[in-house]
Amino acid sequence: MRVLVAPDKFAGTLTAVEAATAIAEGWRRRRPDDEVALVPMSDGGPGFTDALHAALGGTLHALTVSGPLGRPTPATLLLTESDGAATAYVESAQACGLALLPRDASGLRPEPDIAEVAGTIGVGELVGAAVDAGASTIVVGLGGSGTNDGGAGMLAALGATSRPPDALLGGAAGLPAVAEVDLSPARERVAGRSLVAASDVSSPLLGLRGATNVYGPQKGLTRERLYPVDGALTHLAHLLDRDLAEQPGAGAAGGLGYALALLGATREPGIELVARAGGFTDRLAASDLVLTGEGSLDPQTFTGKVVAGVAELAAPAGVPCVALAGRVDVGSRELRAAGLDGAYSMVELVGAEPSLSRPAQSLAALAERVARTWGR
Fold this sequence. Notes:
Blueprint (H helix, E strand, L loop, with lengths): L1 E4 L10 H15 L4 E4 L9 H9 L2 E8 L5 E11 L2 E7 H5 L24 H12 L4 E5 L10 H6 L3 E3 L16 E3 L1 H6 L4 E5 L12 H5 L7 H17 L2 H4 L10 H7 L3 E3 L1 H8 L2 H6 L3 E9 L8 H9 L6 E8 L3 H6 L4 E4 H5 L1 H6 L1 H16 L2
Parallel strand pairs: 1-2, 1-11, 5-6, 6-9, 9-10, 11-12, 12-13
Antiparallel strand pairs: 3-4, 4-5, 7-8
Helix pairs in contact: 1-17
């Protein structure tokens, strides 16, 4: 039997690479003679560069950039080369990710309104490092951000200027004071490079379906602050390009999709980019079963996340797709509608505490259990 293992990260416990390894290990315990191929996945969010490094090889360069609140934070730049041309891959979540924000007393959410002052300077520093490394194509993975500044910090880090000076560096809170922006230095910084925004988020920048109203609450924005922050982004868009703000994907990563579009970037679904890099489609045609997974299988899974994307890719090929997750909080009807043939929970098998304290072992045990049902 030929099994294709293509999970996302298990947030807070396992990277996509670690999850794929654990699933494969568990499956092989039960069925050691099966062919098991690993294609760790990402939608452009956390784990993007790790998944691509596993698929493409290349060289990882360790950097230190500005975090969302200005503190130094580690990040990586992946460089690959083909036919003499270098491509750089960067992950915006490493520089401005939700995981980098301080938490409130519950530990479940960022401190209230912290997203108003969080910025994307570090993403601009990553893009600048890719330019300095000689990359002709720069792919920026978007997802998992803790920022909502419309990419203003990224633009400033690449050379954009404003009146008053430094108004682009204060997160969304600083945008209402901006009277003028000159993007020409930033555009010159990336001139001659092909920019790609890798994201499965199709939201526009503004309005009820935009970056602030859809994703602001999970970044700590309170309900009463959504309208003023969306207004700050609207002000920025009127100064720069209102039409681009309405494009699908402009709202990705708190508006980083918009800022990249201002620099001439094209948009590509992150999961398709990673799937292509890992040879997912070719492997799929030769597979009998696909195993995917993530930390929490819930209604958000079906809004452009990896598990739903893998199931969508598997369906036309007629290959069954099964999900393994830390916990499963959706019913069989939702699973079938998403193209999943089954879903299994680590918490139900081993309990909540082992799932968090020993995630790799727990996931391997779950995969071994799934092999008893789905192996043939």
